[in-house]
Amino acid sequence: MKDLGALTSIDEFPKVKALADIIEKEREGLALQLQTRTGQNEAVLHELDQVDQKLLELAKEISSVRSNADVAQIRTRYGSLAILDQIDALFAQKAAKTAELSALKRLDEISSGIKAVATESKVEEAQLQQWHDNLDGLKNQVRNSDLEPVFQSFNQLLLEQALPLREELKSRLLDSGWDLADKDINAVVSESSASSLKELSSRIYRLNKMWQPQQDSDEIWNFECIANNFRIKFVYHFVNESIQKPHSVEMYFKFLEKYLDLNLYKCVYLFRDPNVPNLDEAYVHQQFINHVLAPIREKVNTTLVNIANSASSDHLKTLVVLISQIFIIDNALVKKHFYDGLGLIAMIPEEVLTTWLSFEIDSSLNQFQKIIKTTNVAKSGSDFAKLLENLYLYFEPFFNLEHGNLMEYKLRTTKTIFMDLTQKYRDILLNSKDETSGAISEQAQFEKTLWKTRNLQLIRATLESFADKLNFILLTEYLNAATSSSYDTIFDDILNLYENAISAAKESIIHRYKKLMNVAFRNYFKVSDWNQITSVPQQCSAELVSPLNLSNKLITMMETVDLTPDMLLDIKGEILNILIHYMVDYVINLNRFNKFGLDQLHLDFGMLKESLRFSQKCDPQSAEEGSFLETLKVLALKYEVDDSCQHFLAKSFIDRRQFSDLRERLSIKYATDSELANALYRNL
How confident is the model over 648-668, as pLDDT tens digits? Predict the structure, then answer.
């Protein structure tokens, strides 16, 4: 409200009425606000009364809830309430406890039933199956601690029920002679007997499958019985040996292999049962092998323990034979008998594999050392290639297996044996010193170079054949993935080294041929009477006999060492070009010729080319030969009786260097203009 203050003069009296009006309006406003607030308070009080009423109604309904359905009805009217969630949870707990009590009651009934028949010699299989199924149904309803005692009682009952059946099956199979080597299955086991044996085996199998809780076990009762004949024979022959020798290790693996060959499919025929789930041909096939392997596994384990406790070198040899035989038998199991179970390799610890591989590497290195120490270079390449091939055949069963960390061992084997030894052999060949003294002649050095080249080619070919084998292809893929590489083959690097060495060796062969022929040609190059020959030549020049004989001898050496056809052709082609350059540089360019002299030169060249013995003869053999023969043709122009060619010999024609007419007339394809001009000038 506005503060009026005190009147200070008479003149202010007229303002009193106006001020009074203002005060009245403010009073009316305050009265209206008070009335509004009073109405609002009354509305709030009414709403509170309604809420109280609803809460009373909800509390009454909640107090009458007896199930989750009642809760659901309340939730549709009042929405989601925490109290309703709590009630739902309580009902769930009550239901779970009720179910658990019911399950425990059923479990107790099963336990009582098992105890009631514990002393009976025979319990109906249907009853056992019913208990098994009921126990299966209780697994998610009862704690494991409550289940385990009943499982133990039930399993013990299964064992007791199966034991006489197992003994009966073992005895009948042993008496039947079903696995005798010289007996047909139909001859020793009648149809009725076979049916009875199958039913007995299947019954034991069904009892075994009731075991609680079910487990993937390598010990299946009926297959233990079926494999019992093998166990008895194996124990009789091998287990009583106090010390294992390498030959005995090989023998018991051969014994296993022969037994499977004779009896695997007999077993499948006898014991497959289409009326029993899973007991089909494939399962019987796998489990028979698996259980026949049991005494082998025991024997392998015993042998490994004995070796581990001994420092004898004989035991180390036994270990190596054992591991190698394991690789062989595991391969046979997979490839021959189609076994996809766990092989014997799974029993070998990594430290034992490491010991085995170290021994094999040392052994391979020793064999390699014996080869490189030979003085016969002609034999070392083939011997080493044969060693590599034999080593691969020896390691192939190991390479074929896939288990655990074997890939790393395969890589190590490949690196230290098939790569390091081949690189070492290459280095030895390239770094061996040629004896240039009188102890070895130039021809002997030439022959030695040929054999070095052939040896390099042999080893390269061996590595290339390895690169195409599946095992090395898989190793290459593994290596590429592990190292983010892109090798075409694991042998790429070593093959490149060999390729470079072979190229260098080829150049060395050509160089040595040229060096030898240089000496042989000395007298031939001294011939200077080419323009004085007076008759048609009938044989090569006398001075060419020595180089011709030498060339024949050197080419024979080349062909004897059996270089690859492509290299032999390349070398002969290069040698031909050398001979052509000799003829041009030291004969044509240094001498004058008459017609018979040109004929003699042509004959001499033909004899030299013949000494190279090209497998496929061509005229010309190369562009260089074509140019040389065309040069001889141009040199012979002055002796043509046809005057139409004489204008080609005019200096003015030669100076113009326009030889298209000459090329057309003489069918010249290879000689350059410079070569033609040089030949034409020599005619002047």
Answer: 888 989 999 999 999 999 999
